[in-house]
Amino acid sequence: MIDCQTAGISGDMLLAALIDAGANGAAIERVLDQIPMHYHKCKSLRMDVKEVKTHGFRARRIDLRIDEDPKEVGAEELLDAVQKVATASGLSEKAASFAINSARTLLETEGQLHGVSLSSVHLHEAGSADTLADIVGVAAACDSLGIFDGETYSTSVAVGGGITAFSHGKLTTPVPAVLEILRRRQIPIIGGSEPVELSTPTGVSMLVNLVESTVETYPSMVPERVGYGAGTRELSTSPNLLRVVIGRTEGSGLDVESVHVLETNLDDVSGEVLGHALQELLDAGAKDAWVSPAQFKKDRPGHVLHVLCDSRDVSRLAETMIYETGSLGVRYQEWSRLVLPREVKVVKVTIGSERYDVRVKSAVTPSGRIVRVKPEFDDIVAIAKALSRPVREISDLVMSQVRKTT
Known about the structure:
This protein has twelve helices and 20 strands. It has helices spanning 11-20, 25-32, 35-38, 75-88, 93-114, 129-145, 176-184, 201-210, 271-283, 314-325, 377-387, 391-405; strands at 2-3, 42-54, 57-68, 73-74, 122-123, 153-154, 157-158, 163-166, 169-172, 189-190, 213-214, 222-230, 241-248, 255-266, 288-295, 301-309, 331-339, 342-351, 354-364, 370-375. A four-stranded antiparallel β-sheet has the order 15-16-14-17, with helices on one face. A three-stranded antiparallel β-sheet has the order 1-13-12. The protein has a three-stranded antiparallel β-sheet with strand order 18-19-20. A hairpin with a 2-residue loop joins strand 18 (342-351) and strand 19.
């Protein structure tokens, strides 16, 4: 759980919070030691971790001592350095993927904002070696804590306010890169406690590549480790702290997932319109959508349209519900649910003389017992059409072969 609703998020705050939560410092140092070898702009780099107090609360703060060439670098050069450092330092596949994706999110956003391709992006602040250090350092820290093997949630992101001065001049906070990254991933923002810049492009680039969804309240879990990372600026009214909470679900071993439920009452919509609205909502990214019968005032029969979705999709799917049904409003609430770990894998099946790829969804208990295996129905339909055979017949043939692989 990444709690950035008070003081926002930056790369150094996230790294400090993870170290405070117990990340392996030696593993992080090994990764950082590779930076001067693979990023020619950086001559030397050293990380100091300090325990500090801010507004009476203790935390860790990162101080990166960097000797580097001040000249600009190209985005592709920074991305290449991330890949080389990840490989040379032995980061796991998941950690390396996170680091590369985080860097790409940052660099592609810069290109989009300036209207140029990635190969034409020239970096100012983002090209500093501390950007590279934050990204690969956080990747190593998350690796050592096992974060990539679980679910990660975030609160809304405090972005601050006022005016920020940087290489392109002065702009309203949040700066364009922060706003664009969070817009693209539909992460909710709040102003926060201070009229200053609270979240940085590097920080939010890593955040959107770590979290599955945002939550309004903490998910159900047993907290095991808590880390606080302090920013360099002292805020006037609140601690400049990012909090990371690492925990486990209790009892069954089921995953805890936060979802939002949207509902609207409908008493004047035809069945055809309802059916179309359901399909539109599912196509738009709803986890599920359904209709239940209801009785409204003056004994009028009608329906309630329900939608299950991630927090980032609430506003967008509510607009779709209103647009498709003519409803005047949508209510919503956050639920926590326990779910089995699920995965989708591709299974090759042979029918006649032809081989086909079929996506298969499976749910497995923590003890390894398979609860459900289900081939993707659209894949079965596609095979049935290609062979001009009944769907039920193809479904039986596919299932008989899928069972042999599970």
